[in-house]
Design a protein that fits this description.
This protein is mainly β. It has a domain at 31-75 and 89-123: Immunoglobulin-like (Sandwich). The protein is 9% helix and 35% strand. It has 1 helix and 7 strands, in the order H-E-E-E-E-E-E-E. The strands form 2 sheets. A 4-stranded antiparallel β-sheet has the order 1-2-7-6, with no helix packed on it. Strands 3-4-5 form a 3-stranded antiparallel β-sheet, with helices on one face. Strand 6 (103-111) and strand 7 (114-121) form a beta hairpin. The protein is elongated and about 85 Å long.
């Protein structure tokens, strides 16, 4: 079976970087932490991640190469503690979301174990460019 890529479509020019970005994002998702994406208006979205047990200082949000990357790492302060049962893992995570051109990351807030990240999308202006055709004659 042949794998279809964006390069398989001759009318899709210059999308090689997007294809690499999509492949890298698909490989890094393991399902944790769970998240929702909701549309809050015609031009805005909100990503909500379930990050119970994480404090503000345990979380980082960055934009890297057209990806929104959310990382969580808890400090394991278990020295001197004796667990009879340990069912709550202090698991680190990384979640990446590919951002289209014109998508900007806004505010982020942590409340009741949920991290909300707001995004807005600007609609690009339609640009029509006329290209002059040269005759090829050299004079």
């Amino acid at each position: 079976m042949t794998k279809l890529t964006l390069a398989s479509y001759p009318h899709m020019l210059g999308f090689e970087q997007l294809e690499r970005l999509l492949e890298r994002t698909a490989k890094s998702s393991d399902g944790y932490p769970p998240f929702n994406i909701e549309q809050t208006s015609d031009t805005s979205f909100r990503i909500t991640l379930a990050v119970a047990g994480f404090a503000d200082a345990d979380l980082s949000i960055t934009v890297e190469d057209r990806q929104l990357v959310i990382r969580g790492r808890q400090n394991e302060d278990i020295e001197g503690r004796i667990f009879l049962h340990r069912g709550i893992a202090g698991r680190q995570f990384q979640r990446a979301f590919v951002l289209a051109d014109g998508v900007d990351v806004g505010d982020a807030q942590l409340e009741n174990g949920l991290l909300h990240v707001d995004l807005s999308q600007t609609r690009p202006e339609t640009v029509v460019q006329t290209i002059q055709i040269n005759s090829g004659k050299k004079g």
